[in-house]
Amino acid sequence: MSFSDKILTWYLENKRDLPWRDTLDPYKIWLSEIILQQTRVAQGIPYYHRFIEAFPKVEDLAIANEEKVLKLWQGLGYYSRARNLHASAKMVVEEFNGTFPKTYTGLIKLKGVGDYTASAISSICFNERQAVVDGNVYRVLSRYFGVNIPINSTEGIKSFKKLAIEVLHPTNIRDYNQGIMEFGAVQCTPQSPNCSSCPLAGGCVALEMGTVKDLPVKIGKTKIKKRFFNYLVPLEHRKSDETLTQLRQRKGKGIWQNLWEFPLLETEREIGLEDIEIRHSEVLKFKRPPEISLFNSDFIVHKLSHQHLYTQFWILEGPFYRTNAIPISNLENYPVPVLIAEFMKTFKF
């Protein structure tokens, strides 16, 4: 039995029951693939259901307000995926009359769709002969064939793509591609792979050579940047009405583009109460000196892929100039980073 036949047989017997596996609708497959970029399956499933309920068809997503899309995405991180999702939906509707391209060549033109995603959609939906290569596939191929070329090198990317094409199943591309990804996620896992009951054990070079834990090879870890975020949470308690606070929308190409947050004072180091008393006016204007208190004495460390945010929330009570002022009851309507969302849950306004 060939490598691809073994993968296919294993998949048909062991595949997980996932909501996007009962359809060949390219809209739903595309949506699931975008959600699962940088996201675990268990975390992604509720978001998939949420988006399908809110936007049953690509036309519904295309005409949606961006803030609604970002709000639904809240908590998944890597928000450029949501913005690209929205832009691609518009492209499908406006340029392709609401019909997804049926080929790799057409799909890769969509914003946020790269080689892997285009290959996955075209092969799963249309059985096009395209090889998928994601982290799971890299791991399975590198171990089974004993390939120690770094997967994040130019040579490695080309070599593994070539190998993935060579070992494709001759006819059932759709299930084979899903199968090899599933095999890496369930059987040939990063830590503690189940080699004792592996159907590929007989031909696995890494198992024979004792190098399972060493593969795949990856080089050049990105240096983590350390940033200090001081969020200034203004509270103006009004006798005749509810408490006001303030949110601002992040702009530019940095993290959390177009999401909302409390006024931010970013510093190069940890700062204390005296610093906040002196510097709060750089980002927030009060009509008189506010009462200031620190919400969290220990840093909340929010870890992103290439940076760690050392965060403190400062509560500033007093009348402020009301640019972007909102009642606290409206906070839940704004798409915010998960860091802010967790604070909102914890702080008793």
TrEMBL record:
It holds the Pfam family HhH-GPD. The keyword GTP-binding does not apply. It catalyses: Hydrolyzes free adenine bases from 7,8-dihydro-8-oxoguanine:adenine mismatched double-stranded DNA, leaving an apurinic site. Binds 1 [4Fe-4S] cluster. Gene3D superfamilies: Helix-hairpin-Helix base-excision DNA repair enzymes (C-terminal) (1.10.1670.10), Hypothetical protein, domain 2 (1.10.340.30), Nucleoside Triphosphate Pyrophosphohydrolase (3.90.79.10). InterPro entries: A/G_AdeGlyc_MutY, DNA_glycosylase, Endonuclease3_FeS-loop_motif, HhH-GPD_domain, HhH_base_excis_C, MIG/MutY, MutY_C, NUDIX_hydrolase-like_dom_sf. SUPFAM superfamilies: DNA-glycosylase, Nudix. GO terms for biological process: base-excision repair; mismatch repair. Its EC number is 3.2.2.31. One of its GO terms (molecular function) is adenine/guanine mispair binding. Keywords: 4Fe-4S, DNA damage, DNA repair, Glycosidase, Hydrolase, Iron, Iron-sulfur, Metal-binding. Belongs to the Nth/MutY family. Adenine glycosylase active on G-A mispairs. MutY also corrects error-prone DNA synthesis past GO lesions which are due to the oxidatively damaged form of guanine: 7,8-dihydro-8-oxoguanine (8-oxo-dGTP). This is Adenine DNA glycosylase.
